[in-house]
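Customer escalation, tier 2.

The customer says the design service returned an amino acid string that "doesn't look like it belongs to this structure." They asked us to rerun it and document both sides in this ticket. The original structure tokens are below, unchanged.
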């Protein structure tokens, strides 16, 4: 009986050590991505802009990012959070920050932008968000503010929320339920639209 107890204790300690290592490693990766994104934003914002409106439009339309590149930040004022946006929505990208779904647009391109993140890392307090709350996306070519106007819960394999909308919209998703242990069966999706200035 003592041997069985010792085995369970050992297994428990190994699992705690593994998850602790994963958490620390992921936090370090996210901090590094945020620093990289902030450095890129600082460089682009320091350069005085002498561009015409046509040149600005061309800059926005021609913008791209490489897979795993931290190119901007997502600021969530209500949660007092600023998170790196990383190109790609695969597990590697999501371990470093908020993932940008490559098939979708970037801010300013007047089409759907899709960002995803894990509920237990970058979107830990996502359940506190409500209709009317704000997302601010900081890009190398400008800042974009969006207001949440609708939320939806869909099954994890439902891709109907992704696609051309004919207007600029920021779609932010994470796993749901927020307190679910393990691989969650659904996705919580927030639809946010540009704030008129």
């Amino acid at each position: 009986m003592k041997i069985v107890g010792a085995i369970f204790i050992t297994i428990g300690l190994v699992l705690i050590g593994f998850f602790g290592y994963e958490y620390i490693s992921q936090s370090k990766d996210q901090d590094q991505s945020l620093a990289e994104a902030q450095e890129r934003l600082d460089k682009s914002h320091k350069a005085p802009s002498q561009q015409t409106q046509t040149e600005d439009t061309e800059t926005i339309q021609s913008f791209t990012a490489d897979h795993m590149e931290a190119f901007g930040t997502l600021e969530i004022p209500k949660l007092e959070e600023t998170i790196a946006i990383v190109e790609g929505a695969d597990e590697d990208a999501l371990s470093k920050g908020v993932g940008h779904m490559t098939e979708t647009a970037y801010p300013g391109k007047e089409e759907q932008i899709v960002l995803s993140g894990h509920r237990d890392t970058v979107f830990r307090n996502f359940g506190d968000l409500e209709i009317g709350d704000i997302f601010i996306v900081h890009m190398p070519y400008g800042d974009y503010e969006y207001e949440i106007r609708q939320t939806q819960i869909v099954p994890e394999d439902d891709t109907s929320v992704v696609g051309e909308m004919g207007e600029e919209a920021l779609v932010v998703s994470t796993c749901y339920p927020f307190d679910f242990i393990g691989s969650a069966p659904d996705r919580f999706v927030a639809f946010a639209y540009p704030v008129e200035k």
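Tier 2 assessment: The sequence is consistent with the input. The chain has one domain: 2-194. The radius of gyration is 19 Å. Sent an explanation to the customer and offered a walkthrough call.
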